[in-house]
């Protein structure tokens, strides 16, 4: 699913939108480079973790997966 992401100066996600809902990133759990893409596993306030992918060529962000349930 294509999403909108707001980043820190470092390029790490600080928040992202899923539909009309904004989720604040509490912690970047993991970072990885995959060819021309970056992958971030982030944790939000309710404990869920999301995998976000950023295509460096197009600038597009994608939600790759969600792990866990709302606390």
What do these coordinates show?
With 71 residues, the chain is mainly β. It is built from no helices and six strands. The chain has strands at 2-7, 13-18, 21-34, 37-44, 49-55, 61-67. It has a six-stranded antiparallel barrel with strand order 1-2-3-4-5-6. The chain starts with a strand and ends with a strand.
Write the layout of secondary structure elements.
Layout: E1 2-7, E2 13-18, E3 21-34, E4 37-44, E5 49-55, E6 61-67
Antiparallel strand pairs: 1-2, 1-6, 2-3, 3-4, 4-5, 5-6
Search tags:
71 residues; mainly beta; six-stranded antiparallel barrel
Q: Determine the strand fraction and express it as a percent band.
A: over 45%
Helix/strand structural class: mainly beta
**Element string (H = helix, E = strand):** EEEEEE
Task: Give the N-terminus to C-terminus distance in angstroms.
Answer: 23 Å
Give the number of helices: 0
Proportion in helices: under 10%
Q: Which strand order spans the largest sheet, edge to edge or round the barrel?
A: 1-2-3-4-5-6
Radius of gyration: 11 Å
Number of strands: 6
Classify the oligomer. Answer: single chain
The overall pLDDT, averaged over residues, is: 94
* Largest β-sheet summary: 6 strands, antiparallel, barrel
- Low-pLDDT residue spans: none
Envelope shape: globular
